Amino acid sequence: MNSRAVLVTGASGGIGAAIAHAFATNGDRVMVHYAASQERAEATVAELPGAGHQLYGADLTDADQARALVEATVEQLGGVDVLVNNAGIAVPLHPILDCSYEQWQAGWQQIVAVNLIGPANVTYCAVQHMRDQGGRIINVGSRAAFRGMPTVPAYAATKAALQAFGQSLAVALGDRGIAVTAVAPGIVDAGMALPVLDGPAGESLRAQSPLGRVGTAEEVAEAVLYLASPQAEFASGTVLDLNGASYLR
Ligand SMILES: NC(=O)c1ccc[n+]([C@@H]2O[C@H](COP(=O)([O-])OP(=O)(O)OC[C@H]3O[C@@H](n4cnc5c(N)ncnc54)[C@H](OP(=O)(O)O)[C@@H]3O)[C@@H](O)[C@H]2O)c1
Questions:
Q1: How far apart are the C-alpha atoms of 1 and 71, rounded to whole Å?
Q2: What contacts 155, CB < 8 A, 6 or more positions away?
Q3: Residue 53, Cα to own-chain centre: how many angstroms?
Q4: DSSP codes of every residue in 97-162
Q5: Contacts of 110 (CB under 8 A, 6+ apart)
Q6: Residue 84 to residue 19: CA distance in whole angstroms
Q7: What separation in Å is there between the alpha carbon of 132 and the centre of ligand 1?
Q8: Which contacts of 67-71 are long-range, i.e. CB under 8 A and separated by 24 or more positions?
Q9: Among the atoms of ligand 1, which is closest to the Cα of residue 10?
Q10: What DSSP state is assigned to residue 31?
């Protein structure tokens, strides 16, 4: 397979960095996007195997910056064949019985902006380049879409919405050779889950799966790499559970 141009959002660390590494190992050229963590993103790029990888900082809650990220990818990588919408946040917490109305609104506004509107805008811009040549779009959703997240309801809601958004586009773009899919990981031993896994709740979180562990960023990355492959075209519209049988639907 020829080297593809791959845009991975939120690739400064955690799951996004593992996804970037998987594509680079596969021989693809990766645009490593970050928001605030420039140094970590520079370290991620420096560790990628292969050549031609790039780095770009953008706050994806800003529609102009989202468009600029896609344009920089097209310019620096020579196109955009694969888009992985990985950037996401699970804070601020806003438990409905234990937060103020202001905290409630802040939670919804910030999380919807990063987890849903940001990916929608990046996707719009990327599709303008894929529309005549085909491509792959993979959204990083979550088990929370099905299982809920009591202290961060906006997180679960945006992940369900992101997965449904992808399914709409799978139908809209199927005849263009653009396959759109999602992964729905359970808890992963990386990124945003590390503080809680290292805390007192860690044991019970690992026990949610009959495998007695949580997932790894590499397991998510390998699944994303498959969904981006030519062989996965007919998987378009799928939401792939990666949760060690901790939640069956
Ligand atoms: N870890 C888990 O257990 C788990 C489970 C299921 C799904 N997920 C999903 O996997 C994805 C990656 O999560 P992770 O665990 O690897 O967490 P992470 O390390 O915190 O990564 C989140 C990424 O999102 C970026 N980001 C945050 N705010 C942004 C903004 N305003 N604009 C653009 N990018 C922004 C961050 O960039 P900077 O650091 O540069 O600011 C970072 O690269 C998320 O979508 C998450 O919901 C994670």
A1: 24
A2: 89, 90, 111, 115, 142, 144, 149
A3: 18
A4: TSS-HHHHHHHHHHHHIIIIIHHHHHHHHHHHHHTTT-EEEEEE--THHHH--TT-HHHHHHHHHH
A5: 61, 89, 91, 92
A6: 9
A7: 30
A8: 67/121, 67/125, 69/7, 69/9, 69/31, 69/33, 69/122, 69/125, 70/7, 70/122, 70/125, 70/126, 70/129, 71/125
A9: 43
A10: E
What element of type H or E holds 188?
Answer: none
Measured CA to CA, the distance from residue 149 to residue 2 in angstroms comes to 41
Q: Which two tokens stand for residue 5?
A: 């141009």
As a whole number of angstroms, the distance between CA 50 and CA 187 comes to 30
How many CA atoms are closer than 13 Å to the CA of 242, on its beta-carbon side? Answer: 26
Q: Residue 231: helix, strand or coil by DSSP?
A: helix
Amino acid, single-letter form, for residue 230: P
Domains belonging to the chain, first-starting first, are 5-242 (3.40.50.720)
- In whole angstroms, give the CA distance from residue 184 to residue 170: 16
What pLDDT does residue 53 have?
98
Q: What is the pLDDT of residue 75?
A: 98
Whether 155 sits among the annotated catalytic residues: the reply is: yes
* Cβ(36)–Cβ(61) below 8 Å: no
Q: For residue 80, how far is its CA from the centre of ligand 1 (angstroms)?
A: 21
Both tokens of residue 249? 């639907």
Give the residues of the chain that fall short of pLDDT 70: 1
Angle subtended by helix axes 63-77 and 118-130, to nearest 10: 40
- The closest residue, in CA terms, to atom 24 on ligand 1 is 87
